[in-house]
Amino acid sequence: MEKQSISIKKVAILAGAFCAYMIGSGFSTGQEVLQFFSTSGPVKGIIAALVYMVLMMFFTYILYGIGQREQFNNPYDVFEYYCGKYIGKFYTWYSVVLSYGIYIVMLAGAGATIHQYYGTSQYIGTYAVALVALVTALLGVEKLIEIIGIIGPVEILFMIIMGIAALVTLAGQPNLLTANGDLIVTSGFKTASNNWLWAAILYSLLGLMFGVAFFVINGQSAKSVKEARISCMIGTVFYTLAIILLTITETVYLDIIKGQQVPTLAIAKHIAPVLGLIFAVIIVLGIYASVSSILLVVTRNFAADKTKKFYIIGIVLTAIGMFIGTLLPFDRLINILYPISGYSGIVFLGFVVYKEFINKNAFSMAKRANVDQMTKINE
Predict the structure, then answer these.
(1) What single DSSP character describes residue 2?
(2) Which domain holds residue 297?
(3) Which of 246, 290, 247 is nearest to 108 (CA)?
(4) What is the mean pLDDT of residues 331-344?
(5) What is the CATH classification number for the domain harbouring 15?
(6) What is the DSSP letter of 306?
(7) Is the pTM of the predicted complex or chain greater than 0.70?
(8) Where do the H-state alpha helices sit in 253-358?
(9) Which helix (H) or strand (E) holds 211?
(10) What is the pLDDT of residues 106-118, one digit of tens each?
(11) Cβ 212 vs Cβ 202: under 8 Å
(12) Residue 376 domain-assigned?
């Protein structure tokens, strides 16, 4: 058997691209973690994050591997691979609509962030990020992965810095986490689910449906199945670490985040004004990375990279997203769209499990039975 090659640089870029794609505006602003993890309290929130990590490792291990092995012409072909022609077509279009909906949510997050920090109109932030993301998406898959592969680790680093600040605060007030942990549950924040375990499962299924096509593209970009799978494992671990740190941070700074559309920015400004300035830029960069990726993935369903049709569709989708992204409040958009997205992943997961394990095992058993029968005949 040929030995599968591993490039440390490529693994790092793909892991960083995973983090950048998953972070987006929902995570980097703090709203996503707040609604899925922090509102359950710090202990349950951290356990929920670990549950998410195990599930997401399972999903990405399969999808990165199948992307590298199959090299689909269109990343959305993975739905027909697992679900068959008709259900696969339904899931393809559902995923396109879902991804585009999340794209709009992220544009709203960009507008909310820039408005909260700089006091400018929300329209300015939404339009600016949309246009820069459009230019990046039109550069094609490989260039985009290179760009966002650098942004992802930077975002994780700043989450760690805020987490360290929260731990320092806890060192001086050791009872703060317990006290605020009880209060955050009843503080009136929007929640994805009243059950912490179900919130973790929903979040992982959201990640599955949100990321299917991108996971396949990342897997295709790797040089081997082993390289693809190692990158997704590393990316998932670092992303989960960021979830845990942000859950602790939001609990510690509960008084700071109340009434804020962008909790992380409020925390950063509280820790140090200069950190708030830098983090505002980091959040916008994170949103830009995800928006660029989603726009490219959605547009790829309609046309190949760098064709005239690809450029036209990308421009049209950007224009529509710029308009809709200013209509609803950011936290409300997340609370409506994200939980629904998680529920939609349950059925698709059933098809993946059947194809990868049940059907494969049945095929292997039938093959072994056939070999045994031929051996008896030859004897």
Answers:
(1) P
(2) 8-346
(3) 290
(4) 66
(5) 1.20.1740.10
(6) T
(7) yes
(8) 254-257, 263-271, 273-300, 308-324, 330-353
(9) helix 196-221
(10) 788 778 777 877 7
(11) no
(12) no
